[in-house]
Specification:
Length: 388
């Protein structure tokens, strides 16, 4: 299965107001409102945090040379954890961002970089030396820690015209889950193959950072019968998709086709398959939301929280924009439309009424059991889940 955004993001939103330093360096976060944690081990209060993006922009009249970038996690104003990027680290990270931009990846996946709110149109990515108006992009800095942290601070040290410069910006760290409680969007026993943990792809893509790709397994651990070349071979295919909470439908798509060429062929190597899928994904990205999410439903739950149900069967979506739904209502059937490499449901919660231009929110589930969990805890990548 594949995430809504797909493997292209493994190479590598909501808008970002700027925090400017008087010396001419400007720092911009993406997302801008907050960074969120997700539990790595709840019983021991170990959290995982991902700083998706921060841009360092030279707004001064003279060139700037970046010497060090420090990322600090604070509690009550005191630094608890710190990471310093300097020398070869800065050169490597700057080169990565510049190559992404040159290859067209920043433009191809604008939702990963907050559109043009973080990196303005025409801004060149560079570094460690920045001419006026150029920017350096720092992506996907991951942290694991025990206990509470409430603020992330980025501190940049630089030289311009032989004089030292420094710029600092902060963003809140939020540890917690959704305001609303959501039922699982399917009934029965399911496999959450991709979730919010670092070893699966969702965590690295801003809109789906805390999303789930959900499939069904047989006794042998396979998701399909026969050779898996036909959609009905998959145990999940055609299952009823349920509204996770009361709300109002704000978007729905019902006419996207399913492409069997997105599935792995018998005997195909993983490398060959990945190369073939990436070619298909380029076309899907160009189509925008419908190409990526396929047939989907998005529901507004009234508290700045929006659920997305993606990759459904063509013609199966039962609701339309403006419809009011109740938790448990059938809204469609599980399929494999859009950027999907086998039948599964992509389910995410985010903070804006757009499947792509939003930031993910960790989901509070009710009515589920995780049979292999030693104690009650949030759902993780790879869990088997029993849903009422």
């Amino acid at each position: 299965m594949k995430s809504v955004l797909g493997a292209v993001l493994a190479l590598l939103a909501s808008g970002a107001p700027a925090l400017a330093a008087p010396q001419g360096l400007e720092l911009r976060f993406c997302p801008s409102a907050q960074v969120r944690t997700y539990p790595l081990e709840s019983r021991r209060a170990i959290e995982g945090l991902l700083l998706q993006n921060v841009a360092v922009i030279n707004r001064g009249a003279a060139p700037v040379s970046l010497d060090a970038i420090s990322i600090e996690l604070l509690r009550g104003g005191e630094t608890v954890d710190a990471r310093t990027l300097d020398g070869s680290d800065i050169a490597r990270i700057a080169d990565r961002g510049a190559k992404y931009q040159a290859a067209g990846l920043v433009a191809a996946v604008p939702f990963q970089f907050c559109g043009t709110d973080m990196i303005g149109a025409g801004v060149k990515l560079a570094g460690p030396s920045l001419a006026t108006g150029e920017a350096m992009l720092v992506m996907q800095q991951a942290f694991a820690f025990q206990g509470a942290r409430d603020t992330l601070r980025v501190r940049v040290e630089a030289i311009s015209n032989g004089k030292p410069l420094e710029a600092t910006a902060t963003i809140p760290i939020v540890t917690g889950f959704s305001k609303n409680t959501y039922r699982f969007p399917l009934r029965g026993i399911w496999y959450a193959g991709v979730g919010p943990t670092f070893h699966t792809g969702h965590r690295w893509a801003l809109p789906e950072e805390f999303a789930f790709d959900i499939a069904k397994l047989d006794a042998g651990g396979r998701t399909y019968r026969n050779d898996g070349t036909k959609f009905p071979d998959y145990y999940a295919y055609g299952a009823e998709v349920l509204a996770a909470a009361d709300g109002r439908v704000i978007a729905a798509e019902n006419a996207q086709e399913e492409n069997p060429d997105m599935m792995r062929k018998p005997g195909e190597t993983q490398d060959a398959y990945a190369a073939r899928v990436q070619q298909n994904q380029a076309g899907l990205l160009a189509k925008g939301t419908s190409g990526i999410a396929g047939n989907y439903v998005m529901i507004d739950h009234g508290t700045g929280e929006y659920t997305l149900y993606a990759h459904m069967q063509p013609g199966s979506v039962r609701v339309h924009p403006g419809d009011q739904v109740k938790a448990g209502d059938v809204i469609g059937r599980l399929g494999s439309s859009g950027n999907s490499t086998e039948p599964h449901l992509h389910f995410q919660l985010c903070d804006r009424p757009d499947p792509l231009i939003c930031a993910g929110i960790p989901i509070t589930f009710s009515g589920i059991e995780i049979p292999w969990a030693d104690y009650p805890r949030p759902l993780q990548s790879g869990d088997v889940v029993v849903a009422q």
